[in-house]
Amino acid sequence: PPPDISTMVSSSAASDVYKRQQNEHYGAFATNIAVRIRAKSLAKTDLRDHFAGLLGTGASLDVYAARDIGDYAELAEQHPRMRYHSPLPPARLLARLPDYDWGWAGFNSTLNNAHLDTVLPNKVYEYIGCGLPVLTLGHLALSRMLEREGVGISLARPDELAERLADVDHARLRQRVAEVRWDMTVEGAIGAVIALYDDLAGVDGTA
């Protein structure tokens, strides 16, 4: 069976060991994807078909839910390369994310199509802030941002993941994320926000 990764997410070295073992077990293609789910129920974000498509390519998924969603836990029991995690405090979750290869930001267009082409979700900036390139599914504004900044790729379908990643220089993409991630975090932008409000209030920010 594939290795248990519960003790292998705390360091880059452990992550490299896991990926080598995954490659040996599943073949040449193996990539680890973190999935951050903020919705409180499956009715808000049913991603089971997405997960099945990704798993079918040989990828491994670690699903981190903000609330316990039993359907995802049951799906993980059926797939040796999917691991479902009970809710974690934000600081612990963010500490784990850097050890993954990608962050998943594909959404269910059947449930949420009305706003998906305009949304730039918080989880995307969490992934980037933790150094992860982002995978999405053709959502217009998000796809444009990832392409413009060079910090991720947009798939037409989850099951084309392996084909698309065959042409991606992941190390170079991750380096690009490292170069821009500070500017895409609250910490990196807070100075500009403060300066804007100081200007609006007529305050001399040099005082």
Fold topology:
Elements: H1 12-26, E1 32-37, H2 48-55, E2 60-65, H3 70-78, E3 82-85, H4 90-96, E4 102-104, H5 109-116, H6 122-129, E5 134-136, H7 140-149, E6 152-154, H8 161-165, H9 170-180, H10 186-201
Parallel strand pairs: 1-2, 1-4, 2-3, 4-5, 5-6
Structure description:
The chain is 47% helix and 12% strand. By secondary structure, it is α/β, with parallel strands linked by helices. Strands 3-2-1-4-5-6 form a 6-stranded parallel β-sheet, sandwiched between helices. The radius of gyration is 18 Å and the shape is globular.
H/E element sequence: HEHEHEHEHHEHEHHH
State the strand order across the main sheet: 3-2-1-4-5-6
Termini separation (Å)?
63 Å
Structural class: alpha/beta
Tell me about the biggest sheet?
6 strands, parallel
Poorly predicted regions are 1-29
Helical content stands at 40-55%
Rounded average pLDDT: 80
Which properties best describe this structure?
207 residues, alpha/beta, 6 strands, 47% helix, disordered N terminus
Explain briefly what this protein structure is.
This protein is an alpha/beta fold.
